[in-house]
Design a protein that fits this description.
The protein has 97 residues and is mainly β. The protein has no helices and 6 strands.
Length: 97
């Protein structure tokens, strides 16, 4: 039955997220970049969407570097507020820019 004749189009949910600020989605059971459809694990890593820099050799966001006493941090990559977590306090501590 054609869609215009009362049949309902099936709902298809798509998982979406971001990798270093770049929009990604699941297609054919693999995560791909939304802009050029390349699988995220088959290409060299992309820089931060906001600052354009690659992570440090330790894996930290380059614009933050190594933060003393911090166990986790993210600059937000231009899509959300950055945060840091010190491992002692349970919660997220917004970063001041």
């Amino acid at each position: 039955m054609p869609f215009g004749s009362g049949a309902r189009k099936p709902n298809k949910m798509v998982a979406t997220s971001h990798k270093r600020g770049w929009p990604i989605l699941v297609q054919d059971d693999q995560w791909i970049y939304e802009d050029d459809k390349t699988p995220i694990h088959e290409v060299p890593p992309r820089p931060c969407f906001r600052c354009g820099r690659m992570p440090t050799k330790e894996g930290h966001d380059a614009c933050l570097g190594t933060l003393p006493g911090v166990t986790a941090a993210c600059c937000g990559h231009g899509i959300e507020d950055g945060y840091s977590f010190d491992g002692k306090n349970r919660g997220i501590i917004p970063l001041k820019r």
